[in-house]
Amino acid sequence: MDTPNLNSSFPASLGRAFIFFVQELGGITVFFLKGLALIFTWPPQVRRTLDQLYFIGAQSIPIVMLTGLATGMVLGLQGYYALAGVGSEGALGSIVALTLIREMGPVLTAIMLTARAGSAMAAEIGVMRISEQIDALQTMQINPLRYLISPRIAAALVSFPLLTALFDMVGIFGGFLTGSMLLKMNPYLYFHRVRASVEMDDVTGGFIKAVVFAVIVITICCYQGYTTHRRQGGFGARGVSNSTTRAVVMSCVLILVSDYVITSLLR
Amino acid sequence: MSQPLIQIVDLCKSFSGQKVLNGANLSIYKGEITTIIGKSGGGKSVLLKHIIGLLEPDSGQVLFDGMPISSMNKAQKKAWRSKISYVFQNAALFDSLTVFDNIAMPLVETRRVSKEEVAAAVEKRLAQLDIGAIGNKYPSQISGGMQKRVSLARALITAPEVVLFDEPTTGLDPIRKSAVLSMVSSYQRRLGFTGVMVSHEIPDIFFISQRVAMLDKGKVVFEGPPEDLQRSDKPVIIEFLQGLEQPRDALTGMGTQQQLSKSYEAESDRSARTAQAFCLVVFSLDNLEEITEQSTHVMAQTVMANFAAELGRHLRVFDSCARYGFDRILVVMPNTGMNEAKKLIERISRSLQRKNVVPIAPYPDFCLMVSAGFAQAGADESIEAVLERAANDEKNVYTFKVC
How confident is the model at residue A234 (pLDDT cuts 50, 70, 90)? Predict the structure, then answer.
């Protein structure tokens, strides 16, 4: 009688996938915690952190402003017609501000930063991995996590909340442009509703999300690049491209999933 | 023999179920250059990466100064790592940093030195490696050969005790290949570091290595001096060396050392049968080291190549010649007695003195100093024994200048 091949059975595959998932999760967590802890080691990496702040933060300002403006304008337009249907167009300022500050600001900013900075980081670190630059750091007694990852974590933790705030501000202004300038709504009423409806908890919640998303994006993107060589076919240009794709997809999915979790916890 | 500085004991390593190292044993001694040779994909680089700790073995151990690396504590590991440098096969330079910053990196990141000291050290290495003009360029803006030299400069900037070279000359032209190897050799003599090199550059590696190890099927099948390797009758070694043998020496365009040895043996047999005399002449470029110091290794090797080309033109068609070290050329002169050999050398020296073999003089009034020693080969006398007599018998050493 033939013995069934247990290694290829469905439960075995499921088990392997689960073990891989747990290992990856553990690996990512340790990767982030080490990177975070190394921020506080002496001497401080001021120059490298500033470089990353410029790359993740300053260079993302145009795209964040553009996205924020477009989102605010669309919200203003859609919100106005929806509210006008029930005779409540005066609440447009509240709708735009709360939607942006609580949800869309942090989420869209994080997604835009994943696309602009996260993908670049995954690719850059991936290339450094396959061209042995990371091995070279180790041979020179330079901790690659400290040198490459810690400045990025520090810069992301600062940049994400600031860019989210910028996105929110520009978005609210976008809502004002469509609501007041195009659709002739009273501008005083728009900003009065914004001020009256937004509370400190909303702003804090938005910032908490921005910080969580910063951790997710930076950890996933850097980890994927850093471990390019460990994956199947993780060599050459294709290995880097696979890592970059995986980094962007995983980051976006986790941003959306964690957004739901944080929102339900903050209620 | 003294205690090895690095000892590799029963090292095994597999990747995706494929055994790359299968119980490799190797001893590396302090102050020597050990070259690891073997077929491509045979695990030479993997072995090197175990020595510096970039890879962990599946089983077996690497001992440094008698202590297993795996049992070292954090401070011991730090001390061990600070003593070792690594020259990567593909240079592994940081493409977002300039050449200057790449070389300075180990000093800037791991040592407490002033900016001026860093700049002085980097400038010195840049000049020594003949890459002084590219300090402000990025790795992508320079050639592969230059990248190799930058990588070498980066490895040597901290004056390490052990330097691991992973095919440092791959992709270089013959002059730069010889220049890099002669530089490794001269640095090794000057700084006294222990070198471990993966290379296929035969015969050049024989000139600079005190020991050679051959890796085959994951095991070290030979370990010892290069002369013993060349004399080995193991089929696996003979097959490997014959596979690498080139019809001509790339630097000089002359025959190979193996071919010269065969010519010598053939002449020796003929001489024993027919009683016809034959001579061995050794041309030594006495101030090649000085050229290196005053100018560059590349210049020194260019001079060697030019000299060899000129010498080749003046030898007879039936003479056999080959490079025998970084500064020596050996010629086997069949059917030639001592008087005839002397006349021939005098004629060659007169002719060579009119040639310009030094492209740019390293200093004013520079002349290349050449000594040509000759000796008649006796029956059953080894080539090394005749060479010894030719080089050291002052009566039969003819010295001349090429200006």
Answer: low
Cis peptide before B203 (omega within 30 of 0): yes
Cα first-last separation, chain A? 60
- Distances from the Cα of A158 to the Cα of B8, B40, B264, angstroms: 48, 49, 76
Q: Is A235's Cβ below 8 Å from some Cβ in B? A: no
Asked if A133 lies within 8 A of B92 by C-beta distance, the reply is yes
Residue A176, judged by CB atoms within 10 A of its CB (0-12, 13-18, 19+), counts as: buried
CA distance linking residue A124 with residue A133, whole number of Å? 11
Contact (CB<8Å) A138/B78 = no
CA distance B336 to B344: 10
* Domains within chain B, CATH numbers bracketed: 6-244 (3.40.50.300), 257-402 (3.30.70.270)
- Note whether B159 contacts A: Cβ–Cβ < 8 A: no
Contact yes or no for B376/B266 (Cβ under 8 A): no
Q: What percent of chain B has pLDDT over 70?
A: 98
In DSSP notation, B19-58 reads EEEEEEEEEE-TT-EEEEEE-TTSSHHHHHHHHHTSS--S
What are the extents of the domains in chain A? 44-266
| Interface ipTM | 0.79
Among B45, B74, B78, B95, the strongest candidate for a mutation testing the A interface, having the largest count of A CBs within 10 A, is B95
Say yes or no: B97 contacts chain A, CB-CB below 8 A.
Answer: no
- Contact criterion met (CB below 8 Å) for B150 and B139: yes
Q: Which of B109, B115, B150, B154 to mutate to test the interface with A (most CBs of A within 10 A)?
A: B109
- The answer to whether the CB atoms of B54 and A138 lie below 8 A apart is yes
Q: State the smallest CA–CA distance between residue B384 and chain A in angstroms.
A: 41
Average pLDDT score over residue span A162-189: 93
DSSP A2: P
Count of residues in chain B? 403
**Which strand (E) or helix (H) includes residue A138?**
helix A133-139
**How many other C-beta atoms can be found within 10 angstroms of the C-beta atom of residue A231?**
13
Q: Do B54 and A142 touch (CB under 8 A)?
A: no
Q: Is the minimum CB–CB distance between A142 and chain B shorter than 8 Å? A: yes
How crowded is the C-beta side of B372, counted as CA atoms within 13 Å?
24
Query: How is residue B202 written in tokens?
Result: 């035969």
Please name which of B220, B221, B162, B214 lies closest in space to residue B187, comparing C-alpha atoms.
B162
What is the per-residue pLDDT across A9-47, written as a single tens digit (0 to 9) for each? 888 888 888 998 899 899 999 999 999 999 999 889 999
- CB A80 within 8 Å of CB A179: yes
Q: Could you say which of A127, A139, A147 has the minimum Cβ distance to residue B52?
A: A139
Q: How far is CA A225 from the centre of its chain?
A: 16
